[in-house]
Amino acid sequence: MIALFQTLLLSTFPALVIVAGMRDVTSYTIPNWISLALIAAFVPAALAGGLTLPAIGLQLAFGVVALVAGMAMFALGWIGGGDAKLFAAVGLWLGWPASITYLLVTGVTGGALAVGLLSLRSLWMRPYVQGGPPWFGRLATPGENVPYGFAIAAGALTAFPASALGLALMGLG
Fold first, then answer.
1. Count of H-run helices and E-run strands, the chain
2. What is the pLDDT of residue 2?
3. Distances from the Cα of 158 to the Cαs of 52, 81, 148, 170, in angstroms?
């Protein structure tokens, strides 16, 4: 029973990150409840995953650094507010050194997403997009934002297995 509870707590991260990425792609919003749920679930998941109090403190410090970085990116207009909050919540869960992978994969995925959306938004692709669902048409609208939460989710899911909590989930921590 304890192992099931531990697995459920540690699985909160990938589940919520997937929801956030998909919500951003389909609606250009990441609801606050997702980031808040990630933050609220962190300490119980960390304790269930066997992290020590000093390790939890380091994770919290890394989350604060990620929050400041997210706020700076938001202030510069690079990402939206929901992206900044998700960025910080993910940083909290990943900590160091998994965040190196997180940052690299998020950056590369975000760049690829931007290039893909530029192609999708070109005049020659417009006729192919019109028959799709409304959210896909919005993705193809020239001048529309980039749903960067998708890139954040891709980076987070790629880096999670190497994090202390990801290793705990796999029974390796």
1. 9, 0
2. 61
3. 24, 23, 16, 14
